[in-house]
Amino acid sequence: MADVTIDPMKATRNETWIEHAMQGLADAGYQKGAARRAVVECLGRQACAVTALEIEEEIRQGDTAAGRASIYRTLEQLEELSLVHRLEMGTGTASYEAAEPGGEHHHHLVCDRCGRVVPFQDDGLERAIKGLSRRSRFEVSEHDVTLHGLCERCAA
């Protein structure tokens, strides 16, 4: 179990990803706009996946105004350019997280009672997926693992 890392949900500013995403949008011909930048910066502060409504709520607390349609349009553009991952975690609402340029990623534990999402990394799981790919002769291009259950608070 030593190679499993459970990440606490800490918001940190990922300047590298923010600039990478803004450059990707510019290269694709999208103009710089305050709403688009606000969505990118919001995603760049997240440690894990967030919904469009959570992005909207965070942006509203700041200085920039961004309508819901602009948020969804920006998320669509970012997904189209492979700058974000759109995740379906069985909650009925899509979540989005920054796609790291180097391919680094994590997976998710989802509490079925309170909805808490906990990111985790597991080197053994990654090795198992690569092994499965070799054995099945199926080239796995990407993957996301979401495990459902009860978090420690809800299980108590």
Give the end-to-end Cα distance, rounded to a whole number of Å. 23 Å
From the 3D structure, determine the CATH topology: Arc Repressor Mutant, subunit A
Q: What is the CATH top level name?
A: Mainly Alpha
Beta-strand percent range: 15-25%
Round the Cα radius of gyration to an integer and report it: 17 Å
Helix content: 40-55%
Structural class: alpha+beta
CATH superfamily: Winged helix-like DNA-binding domain superfamily/Winged helix DNA-binding domain
Output the helix-strand order.
EHHEHHEEEEHEH
Enumerate how many helices there are, as a single number.
Answer: 6
Strand order of the largest sheet: 1-6-5-7
What is the total number of structural domains?
Answer: 1
CATH architecture: Orthogonal Bundle
Count of β-strands: 7
Which ranges are low-confidence, i.e. pLDDT below 50, for 5 or more consecutive residues? 4-11
The average pLDDT score comes to: 87
Shape: globular
